[in-house]
Fold:
Amino acid sequence: MTSSASPARPVLSLGDRIFSRSAVFAGSMILVTLAAVAIFLIVQSLPAFVATNADASLLPDNFWSYVWPLIFGTVWAAVLALLISLPLAIGIALFISHYAPRKVSAILGYIVDLLAAVPSVVFGLWGIGVLAPATQPVYVWLNEYLGWIPFFGGVVSGTGRTILTAALVLGVMVLPIMTAICREIFLQAPVLHEEAALALGATRWEMIRMAVLPFGRPGIVSAAMLGLGRALGETMAVAMVLSATGLVTFKLLTSENPSTIAANIALSFPEAYGTNVNVLIATGLILFIVTFLVNALARWIVSRRAEFSGAN
Amino acid sequence: MAISVRPVTAGSTLAGNRLPRNAPWLILAACLAVSLALFGLLAAANRSEFSLTGAVLVGLILHMVVTTALSAAIEGRRRAVDRFVTNLVTGAFLLAMVPLVSVAITVVSNGLARFDTEFFSSSMRNVTGEGGGALHAMVGTLLITLAATVISVPLGLLTSIYLVEYGRGKLAKIITFLVDVMTGIPSIVAGLFAYAAFALVLGPGVRMGIIGAVSLSVLMIPVVVRSSEEMLRLVPNELREASYALGVAKWLTIMKVVLPTSIAGITTGIMLAVSRVIGETAPLLITAGFTASMNYNLFNDRMQSLPVYVYTQFANQGNPAFAFLERAWAAALVLILIVMAMNLVARFVAYKFSPKTGR
Structure:
């Protein structure tokens, strides 16, 4: 099975052909899988877009009035989680890359990565069993003294199962990936710049502000986007911690919260039947599109720096 | 940093005044002592409970304020800001340790109650109250994860070989980009995809272990591809060229030279990928469903898995409730132990069997 069509082409053995073909096949399977994800989700969710309450008992009126509070809740919880975890992630990454002694910094990084090894359902159990009761008195205090700020207003939840608690759990869960990316890019900051800054008499913080942070800005942005993508799609922790009523509100401490798309699917899917299933798959499609856009944007920002790999 | 500061005596004309090197630690100890004493007194006066967390927290904040103020007074504004940021950054790291330690303590202390032989040797069939176990969930997790690994390792490995050894031009670029994007697919969407695909063929309401395995492999493939790709790129080109120079075909070079050189790293990557999907709950909840009985058949009927077991025990609490919660925590402990063990073994393999690059 040797080809002799054109003399310029190298002669390939049978094994070579089979091997390279199967490699190409496997690579194309990635393409096919992603396309299949999109197509199957679209096909299964088409009936939902035109459905009314008569078709699917989940819908209050039409599809969009059902999905709007969910989209709001998803984005709101993810943004809150990001606000909590981004400053922390930058701080931890700086600590590991520029403050901690070199000998222990690898171990410290591994310890932060351990957070990523905890399954989300365990975080859910922890959030409801430990975090919610622990934060509830703090919420009461916030409401009493800072209640004039709209976010802290309203009637405080008695269980602590608020969107702020859910965002705290989400923030903890996205912390490892954001820290890993920030750490990687901070370590890549040009050492010559750092040493030049120190030689000119800059303190450590001035050196970081002048040499490390400007260099790491794209990395921080993409870390934030990837963290946002994770937070948008995180399911079980929110499903277990949040007491959701489907209300659209910015109040952080009440027991009436908007649910998130992912949590809503997990909670409603096991009992769903008929068109309800299509409705839930359609909300999943919307989640897929949103996270796809966020991730693609993050990867695009990373890929502008060719030598930096953001995946971890 | 590498820079070392020579202690400068006060009054030197060359440099400003500096705090002694051990000053921050002394201030920290003093602040913690003051805060503990204050909280102790308050607790004694109000006859309320002594809050160690609060005392330590106040002590740390006090330390931050005192150090910054002292430094501003003696060393000037710039050094004060530097010390403030140092404290802030260290505080951020310590803060991140709080949930980790808290989760570890809670899971171990709550999970040990039912960490017994019955838990590992029986299912939940005909169990309504106390007793029962998670054997069916462990078997399910084992089978589903195994099936997901069987699907995703060949595909992921071949894809990474394509990207490293064959991939040129547009297709390789598109695949790299899509693998990156695939890493970010929410797990619940992967579950919905697998369900939607199988429901088109087998009709609605279908629940099987294999659907869960498919959804897990959607999550697992990109991780395998990324890690194997990284490892294959580490193989020095000289090895490949030496093999070609001896007249060995490309595929044999890959099989006999490239893969054996990088097998340790690839194994590590696969194990980390497995440990990532083994804790996934949401996709299994909607594809494999939940059950109380043993099921050894991936292609027939619902199949329980450990994460879903944790969730269902928590969500559908019966009477007495504590029995269900104890089982949930015990299963959570088993799950964390499995994930930790896989992580440790993976890192050990990477450390022990990694090729010596000679640099």
Summary: The CA atoms of residues 244 and 305 of chain A lie 41 Å apart. Chain A touches chain B through 99 residues (CB under 8 Å). Chain A is about 70% helix and 0% strand. Residues 63-99 of chain A form the longest helix (37 residues).
